[in-house]
Design brief:
By secondary structure, this protein is of the alpha/beta class. Helix content is 34%, strand content 20%. The structure holds adenosine-5'-triphosphate, iron/sulfur cluster and magnesium ion (MG).
Length: 361
């Protein structure tokens, strides 16, 4: 394989994005590393305020400055640092090489403009197509994302579409220029469960058709379970764990991931049961905490955890845990290399809300 194919599409290194506020410096993203490989779906999960959106808005260089600022790190896209690009160069890349789908479609669709205008405008900016060609391309894309009677509906206004259909229009808009990277920030939270499943399926199909790499951000580990190839778990502006999706679910190596797994309903068995929430509250983002941000809530915490952020511990298949006790967590009951029966038993116990015994130290 050539370097081009083996090199990750996106490499984020030691990224720090802070906001200056009256309460102090909010360390929204405070030194994260991750990569997005070509053609993969990467899920970013974590509770509210963990820095998921800010980490991605930083990639697009859309952080409002002031109060925000990327204070450190590198964002390599195809090997080139986006932080070194001029504003004009970045503008050219947005919507073209990197696109974003936001949680609320109305925040990106202009209510006063016909869909046709909004779609063709993007193409006019980024391609040399003439007006007939841009219209045809836009109709094609609406059809591809499943808008019925696209040829007629393209001249309607956003409010004439249902929530799910508006989300599809947004996806069409994001994919018009065949971006190499699509970032979807909670793309389905506002939608009901059936439509959510359809939209996720659609994003997956489009990834297959266009070989687009996808980053999907969500609070909901269930959403990424059937969707992501790999998952990055964030907490307190840091990455806690990164792993292929299957490994993360079956062999987590971080106490926070274990906590998350216990707090989401299992979707693979079709049961809707809330499990044990993680006790305690998230860290204050204005604290300049040198240690592990999860330490206050972690049953495994030792003194060192309060003093120094952990070095990553590597496991098989690129699984990486930022925890001083990663090896022990991995080898503990939930992370044990279990037989299928044992695994089923553990899953049953997790599902019934039982606490898996983790030692207090
Ligand atoms: N413009 C801003 N000014 C000040 N603080 C901000 C700003 N934008 C984000 N933050 C802070 O940065 C932190 C991370 O926010 P972010 O939006 O990335 O969280 P998130 O993980 O996406 O959460 P959610 O799941 O609720 O969307 C939070 O503490 C948030 O309050
Ligand atoms: S054991 Fe320490 S480093 Fe690991 S998650 Fe708990 S507090 Fe963080
Ligand atoms: Mg967010």
């Amino acid at each position: 394989m050539t370097d081009e194919q083996t090199q990750p599409l996106l490499e984020v290194r030691n990224l720090k994005t802070h906001f200056e506020t009256d309460e102090g410096t909010v360390r929204a993203v405070d030194g994260i590393d991750y990569e997005v490989r070509r053609g993969e779906v990467l899920g970013i999960v974590g509770e509210s305020g963990s820095g998921k959106s800010v980490s991605q808005i930083s990639v697009l260089r859309l952080i409002p400055t002031p109060p925000g600022k990327i204070v450190d790190g590198e964002i390599l896209f195809n090997g080139e640092d986006l932080l070194e690009k001029s504003d004009e160069e970045i503008r050219q890349m947005r919507g073209n090489q990197i696109s974003m789908i936001w949680q609320d479609p109305m925040s990106s669709l202009n209510p006063f403009l016909r869909i046709s205008r909004q779609l063709t405008e993007t193409l006019e900016v980024h391609t040399d197509l003439d007006s007939d060609e841009t219209r045809e391309r836009a109709i094609e894309m609406l059809e591809m994302v499943g808008i019925p009677a696209a040829r007629e509906r393209i001249d309607q206004y956003p409010h004439q579409f249902s929530g799910g259909m508006r989300q599809r229009v947004m996806i069409a808009m994001a994919l018009l220029c065949r971006p190499e990277l699509l970032i979807a920030d909670e793309p389905t939270t506002a939608l009901d469960v059936t439509i959510q499943a359809q939209i996720l399926e659609l994003i997956k199909d489009l990834r297959d058709d266009f070989d687009t790499s996808v980053v999907i951000i969500t609070h909901d580990l269930g959403v990424v379970a059937g969707m992501a190839d790999r998952i990055v778990v964030m907490y307190g502006g840091r990455v806690m764990e990164e792993a292929p999706a299957k490994r993360l679910f079956h062999q987590p190596a971080h106490p926070y991931t274990v906590g998350l797994l216990k707090s989401v309903p299992r979707i693979d068995r079709g049961r809707e049961k809330r499990l044990v929430p993680i006790e305690g509250s998230p860290p204050d983002p204005t604290d300049d905490n040198p240690g592990c941000p999860f330490a206050e809530r972690c049953r495994w915490a030792v003194d060192k955890c309060h003093e120094e952020f952990p070095e990553p511990v590597e496991f098989e298949d690129g699984q990486r845990s930022y925890c001083w006790r990663a090896e022990e967590v991995y080898a503990s009951e939930l992370g044990a290399k279990a037989s299928p029966e044992h695994q089923a038993d553990i899953e049953e116990r997790v599902e019934s809300g039982e606490r898996i015994d983790t030692p207090r130290t």
